Amino acid sequence: MSDIQSREAIIQYAHKFNSSGLSVGKSGNISARSEKGFLITPTGFNYNELNNPEDICHCDIDGNIIEGKWAPSSEWQVHSDIYKNRTDIKAVVHCHSTYATALACCNIDIPSFHYMIAIVGGGQIKCADYATFGTRELSENVIKALGERKACLLANHGQLTVSDSVENAFRLAEEVENLAKQYCISIHIGNPVLLDDAEMQRNLEKFKLYGKKINTNKQQVIAFHLAFPVNDIETTRYFYKNIIGCEIGREAESWIDFNFYSHQISAHVKPEETREVDTNAIDGENVPVRHFGLVLDWEIWHELVERLKNKQIQFLIEPTIRFKGLAGEQATFFILDPSDNALEFKSFKKPEQLFARDKN
Prior knowledge:
This protein is an alpha+beta fold. It has eight helices and 18 strands.
């Protein structure tokens, strides 16, 4: 998108702040990444009077004004730091929508009470700690609360969304406000039932194709299938259902299917095929040569670690972070199922670096 198109998009959706109810008067701000930095709404403007593309401020990545006759939004620091920390982000929308702000004023995260929470790219919408508006401290708190997700609340302030376009960031802000409203109503009625980590991971996987057109001329991989030997059905059922959180599919006397985070795995009773696995030395650990597992969302991975610890599951290889601060930074751990099948659960700080070849 050209700079002039980005300016026009910023104006178009700034006009919608009031009509949509996301913000009133002069509150809220919108920005879009540019080749030289970012374009952002000016400070103190009544957005209904913002019509000239030249009124949009152009800043370099550090927030220094490149062109424009008005000062940038007082929240330019947050926008600047998001673009520095998240290369995948092309647009930012910050607003003071009613229900999201009400929860933010109570410093309340929005948990996994609804499957649509997955639309933000995580299992919850976190509330950033409070800091004075326009400060670097606030910016740091927002970066922390966002993580790899696309939305967060700002304590005693409002909400913020990020996406690949101004339109999508704005639409996401509308979704966050709607979820905030639903959550406020549900906690007023009683205690909302939360979806567990495994279910939220399934929803996260489904949202990767949400709103995308499938190319019917090409074969689509829906899920992988893996069959593996086990000693018996009952201990296998308990482990994968109660410990890992898998739903049970079809089953018979000698086999059972599991929904393994939206993938199909089949356990077959074949005790003679289960055996101690050979290992290779990797980074000082004896890593099982034969193993299977998943790459999870960063937040979901940490939540799974805590659940396994709470259930007193022994780790074959303790949870650790590899290549910290480098390309391909990843979290990993190994466990054994009751038949000594090794499972590895991994997560990448930046999912786009899943196949990073270098450590620097």
